[in-house]
Amino acid sequence: MHLFPLLFLALAEIVSARSLPAVEQRRSILNTTALANNSYYPPIPVNTNFADFVPNMKGIPLISINESVQPWNGAIKHVKTAPTPRTDALLAARSCGGPVVTNPGTFWYEQITHNGISPFINDGASWPVFRNVKTNYGAAGDGSTDDTDAIQNAINAGINGITRDQNQLGTTGQPAVIYLPRGVYILSKPLQLYVGTVLMGDPLSPPTLKAASGFNGNVLIYGKDPHQDATTNFYIGVKNLVFDSNNINKDTQFTIIDWSVSQATQLTNCVFNMPSFSSGHTGISMPEGGSGTYLGDLQINGGVVGIDMSNQQYMVKGVAFKFSTTGIKLSHCFDCIIQDCTFQDHSVAIDMTSNSVGSLVVLDSSAQDVGTFVATVNTGNGASSLILENVQNNGGGSAQTVMASGNAILAGNVADTWVMGNTYTPGGSPLGSYVGGATFTTPRSSNLLQNGNYFTMAPPTYQEYALDQFINIKSVSGLPVFGDGVTDDTANINSILSTYANCKIIFFPQGTYLVTNTIFVPAGSRIVGEAWSAISAVGSNFWNPTSPVPMVQVGNAGDVGVAQISDMLFTVADVLQGCQLLEINIAASNPGDVGLWNSHFRVGGAAGSKVQTNCAGSPADCKAAFGLLHLTATSSAYIEDMWGWTADHDLDGGNGQNIAVGRGALIESSSASNGGRGTWLVGTAFEHNTLYQYNFHNAKDIYAGMQQSETPYWQGPGFAEDVLDPAPWAPALVTPYGDPDYSNCGGGDSQCRMAWFEYITSSTNLFLYATGFWTFFNGNDLSNCNNNAACQTNAIDIQGSSAIYMYGVNTKSNLNMVTGDNGLLVTMNNNPGGWGGVVAAMLAEG
């Protein structure tokens, strides 16, 4: 059992600190030089009963790298293949009235020209990205033929004698979309996926992968690449499929998909069919763990367990569970959130009795004919914290909403917010208080709601549009675009986007699209990538850190309309301290009209960028980008399944990665500036950025469900003072970018001058659920952060803000979990649980 003694702060010290004016009080409390030997902090409890997860920092060797592709040496200018003037057809496209819905019988992606490449491997122009298992590899899909080998051959296929199962093409060098047309595909043994794999079916008639009656094995699909640790299984997708295990005896131990994976993975729009009344079948399992972010929009029928969760953190959204004994079993999860899910006919909808849970948040979900909605344990401290909000339990009779350690403690519906765990509220004890089940009011902003729930949206497939409503950006006559990691594609990408805005959907085949200036995405745009097609910046336009230039700019201030981006990657090809990778200015005409799904950031750590090979020394010499994501005040957007990663290790080799990207996500979206619209962050992670991971600055009406972060591994003791925050980005650009200036820290205090996980200033109506903020390294030394040592001083800061509602706050190795100018001070010591500290509710209503 993972329990700590409940430790309380010395009340006399609290009262003394609170006698100061608010700002002076904050400075006094946060001056860690003065606190070095202060009894204000009791001894840190040592975790001896729960093994620390150790990040795996290995990459896949890229043996077959194309050394001639070096974009940082300068992008090649286009040689025009057609006259510059626009054709009549292009000009006419400006007034086409938007893509037209015709509900075709064939999926556009199956028909479109597939000319994607893998630029940074030898002969990458011939690399087979798109792989139709029927037409290219001989699968039958007729419901009787054994298609296992045909599909596995499609997965494994490589180039020049190097196949994808040989672990030689790097993480980023082997992108492959394994496409299954409609049909029933019989499997006699497991399929094995690898990093860079997208297993995709036809969403118009999702194909079925069905276990044969004599299936050899106990897992249908191994989603985890066996060559990699679970925590380095990135860039894997499974979507638009039906899985069926009904041919396997219902009492046999069997798993449909082993999903021991991490960030930048997508599992969506799938159906899992298992035998009813099974004692052995599980839909989704994570036996090797991982560091995941998001999965959603699934249907899981039958089995003994729908999802067996064993991961550092996860968001589960939009899943319908039916007829399983247990819907979700939290075997292990430090920080989990379940949103917009339905449970029908289970003994237990959610089982979190394992004693290996930090916190669980359940939002906007319902149960029908379920014996127990949530089964948990009552720890009396931060461990196994539970938050229920807007939950309906229609079990009737003896059905219970919460059973804790075998005792019924809650029945019926939860209209507002019900909390079990440590809480901090305005006017309450500065030490916080443990509640075994209390109701709080969370006045949700109407700008964030649809039918009373927080708005959510499934990833668009655009299946309602026929092929003639799409443009392959590499196939536009007169406007050549290469995506080869060498040629400057800026001008022609901009021409195509401006021409076809509000007209066609733009498909970016797999590749790396090199740009030397801003790509402008106008209102009316819909962009779809392929296995994370990359836009990569290079050149002197991105060099000035005091006047950053967006690599991709979505709309202008004041624009209202549609701008959607799916399956794309944003990166840099050089060390570019003035590059803001993505800036969104446009507001959505309707919720979800402006959105990003399964789109990510990567700076360093991969072939095709000078950052990969030139950043093993001082971080001050590798200010590789100004920032990742900027949502400006006029924007409103829906963002789902996004990983903002500044590399902590090399995915394609063993180069050191001490990278100083300035900022993670700067969120200034405000309903006061965008016409009364909300912004939603659903399953996001920002990691290893220098000043902060999330910065809510002058923001209003924001929902965030699942925020996962890690500080840069190089920060802390071990590096010179020229990289103590805000260096190497000093002076901090407080105006206009809202940077923290670290004036709360002593000048040489390396543990205080580490990146904020969450920095909140002058904001209101923030609804933040499920945060997992982890510190693993201190000056690149892992040992300093083991056993809950406080190897970072601060995690979250709230200044000049009101109506901040935080539920399920989890930190690792952070002394102060929450600080603020109104006297808030929440410490890890006083809230033991999970991976270090857990707070169920942190309410700054103000």
Structure commentary:
A hairpin with a 2-residue loop joins strand 23 and strand 24. 7% of the residues lie in helices and 41% in strands. The chain has 846 residues and is mainly beta. It is built from 8 helices and 51 strands. The N terminus is likely disordered. It has a domain of 372 residues: Single-stranded right-handed beta-helix, Pectin lyase-like (Pectate Lyase C-like), CATH 2.160.20.10. The protein is globular and about 70 Å long. It starts with 10 loop residues before the first helix and ends with a strand.
Which secondary structure elements does this structure contain, and how are they paired or packed?
Blueprint: H1 11-18, H2 22-30, H3 88-93, H4 108-111, E1 130-132, E2 142-146, H5 148-156, E3 176-180, E4 184-187, E5 191-192, E6 197-201, E7 208-211, E8 219-222, E9 236-244, E10 254-258, E11 265-273, E12 281-285, E13 294-301, E14 305-322, E15 326-339, E16 342-351, E17 357-376, E18 385-394, E19 400-404, E20 407-410, E21 414-424, E22 433-440, E23 449-450, E24 453-454, E25 470-472, E26 484-488, H6 490-500, E27 505-507, E28 512-515, E29 519-521, E30 525-537, E31 549-554, E32 560-561, E33 563-572, E34 576-584, E35 587-588, E36 594-597, E37 600-603, H7 610-613, E38 625-631, E39 638-646, E40 663-667, E41 679-687, E42 692-697, E43 700-710, H8 734-737, E44 756-761, E45 764-774, E46 792-799, E47 802-812, E48 814-820, E49 825-827, E50 832-833, E51 836-844
Parallel strand pairs: 1-3, 2-4, 3-6, 4-7, 5-8, 6-9, 7-9, 8-10, 9-11, 10-12, 11-13, 12-14, 13-14, 14-15, 14-16, 15-16, 15-17, 16-17, 17-18, 17-19, 21-51, 25-27, 26-28, 27-30, 28-30, 29-31, 30-33, 31-34, 32-35, 33-36, 33-37, 34-38, 36-39, 37-39, 38-40, 39-41, 40-42, 41-43, 42-44, 43-45, ...
Antiparallel strand pairs: 18-21, 19-20, 21-22, 23-24, 47-51, 48-49, 50-51
